[in-house]
DNA sequence: TAAATATGGTCTATATTTGAGACATGGTCG
DNA sequence: CGACCATGTCTCAAATATAGACCATATTTA
């Protein structure tokens, strides 16, 4: 738990920098979180963790992503060095995406998050049901 | 590393369910990730990890969030049982937000992500610079 | 030979989300 | 009376995501 807090403290250093300067020092944590914390990136990384996959395999694996977002997410992840892109000169050219070492190293921390999600999901659902069901959450106005 | 993979495997169970059924079983991991993986939630939780804070304190801490999104993010986190909301009947009423136990329990996994971000940030920046600087990333067309 | 299929994308028009900032509420201060 | 504080809500505009048409090329099917 204090391990956790020390990481948070490290983060908060940037936060206060942020609060001081006009042009904020770009907080690494935030920068990274903005990248991998979007709708598809983690999903993509988890999917590629199973095995390298091609464009259309990824599309099948993550059924509700649009081609546009798939392309864009892959580009962004490639740009940040988390995945690599390999083109094979097959008849209709095929492209395979793989987790780069940097992406591999993200699996460990991500796994602990997945673990948390899995273990706590019932609590969240309970809280949600409670919040939604309780009269008194509707009249929010003071 | 195989700890990581086992978590990923657990996740992929839902993925394949997903691929089979028309109306997908809602994957807990994904459900949770969609919630805390938005633009502000993690930031909010990290900020509240330092200490309970009031609406305007949060606004100052996260300078570029709009009131609208601040309210909405707080509501969503409250709904999911990650934070709690306490109204004090001071002259202009004040509202304090606190991390709930469920939110506390998220700190540990989140910390490992922060840790990763902090340690790997230079690698990411390097990859980014390389990608942006390398001619040959522009002509992406086959 | 022509049509259909598959690949990895891009482009456009629409839908959704986010942000900026006006407005509300009720009490205190000058 | 009028201004100000805190905590929101509301509306409208801007940014972003989505669906799905379209493209070029090559192979298989009819």
Range of helix content of chain A: 55-70%
Largest sheet, strands/sense/barrel of chain A: 3 strands, antiparallel
Strand order of the largest sheet of chain A: 1-3-2
How far from one another are the termini of chain A?
A: 36 Å
Structural class of chain A, by secondary structure, is: mainly alpha
Rg of chain A, Cα atoms, Å: 20 Å
Query: What is the molecular shape of chain A?
Result: globular
What structural keywords apply?
homodimer, 142 residues, mainly alpha, three-stranded antiparallel β-sheet, globular, DNA-binding
Report a brief summary of the structure.
Two copies of one chain form a homodimer. With 142 residues, chain A is mostly helical.
What does it look like?
Two copies of one chain form a homodimer. Chain A has 142 residues and is mainly α. Chain A has six helices and three strands; from the N terminus they run αααβααββα. The first copy, chain A, starts with a helix and ends in a 9-residue tail after the last helix. In chain A, a hairpin with a 5-residue loop joins strand 2 (83-88) and strand 3 (94-99). Chain A has helices spanning 2-20, 28-36, 41-50, 55-61, 67-79, 101-133, and strands at residues 53-54, 83-88, 94-99. A three-stranded antiparallel sheet of chain A has the order 1-3-2. At the A-B interface, helix 1, helix 2, helix 3 and helix 6 of A face helix 1, helix 2, helix 3, helix 5 and helix 6 of B. The structure holds a DNA duplex (30 and 30 nucleotides).
